[in-house]
What we know:
This protein is of the alpha+beta class. The chain has helices spanning 29-36, 74-84, 163-171, 209-221; strands at residues 3-10, 13-19, 46-51, 58-64, 69-70, 87-92, 95-102, 105-109, 134-135, 138-139, 142-145, 149-154, 181-189, 192-199, 203-204, 229-233, 236-241, 249-253, 255-262. It has 2 domains: 3-111 and 253-260, Diaminopimelate Epimerase, Chain A, domain 1 (Roll), CATH 3.10.310; 134-244, Diaminopimelate Epimerase, Chain A, domain 1 (Roll). It is 15% helix and 40% strand. The strands form 2 sheets. It has a 17-stranded mixed β-sheet that branches. Strand 1 (3-10) and strand 2 (13-19) form a beta hairpin. The model has no long low-confidence stretch (mean pLDDT 96).
Amino acid sequence: MGDRFYKMHGLGNDFVVIDGREMPVEVTEARARAIANRRTGIGCDQLILLSPSASADAQMRIFNHDGSEVGACGNAFRAVALLLGGKTTLETLGGTIALEAQGDTARVELEEPRFDWDVIPLAYAMDTRDMPVSWEELDHPAAVNVGNPHVIFFVPDCDAVDLARLGPVIETDPIFPERINVNVASLAGKDHLNLRVWERGAGLTLACGTGACATAVAAIRAGLVASPVRISLPGGDLTIAWAPGERICMTGPATLVYTGETDWSRFG
């Protein structure tokens, strides 16, 4: 009998979820990377570890495909909401998150977005609403921290951007000392945006929940759309609601694919 895990996804952004609330599981950067490997491990975009919390229903740690630990993952929040059921709270590196399972969808209430340059963080001070920087045709982005850092470019057609090439260049630019998630968005209709995301430490994924939140916030601040905003990602749609001075509310689906068992010592 091994340790149980859950394979889940949110709009195709997939996770291995380990519930360590009763039986602790040690996760190192190397172990997370080994589990996430799609050829020799279980395979996932992010590894999620749940553990006991003194201030919430559970503590949630998030490890990217490359083993790096991050503070937020919107799609994984919805997946965990379905596992926990009902109304719950999560302690994360990015703050306390309120969850509510609603059938096969979930409502997630994140912390208020942050815009100060040193909180994103950026290497030096600049206007995060309209950054005076560019990478080829991508220029004048906005920057938002929604528990993890995002830069957002509004373009005529997000599908025309070579994000697989430009994404890693922008992610690792020295202007972003903790690296960055890269979003390219285009207006698809009234209060509707199309979005593609290069995720820090994970690359191109079918969906990024925090990217959808950051993009909606930036678009509302810029007056491009009004709340609530429909965000269409390659894997499907999310609804994001936000007003200045308030927390961000994200609603969308999540899916339990299967439950498995393994011995975590196999992964180093």
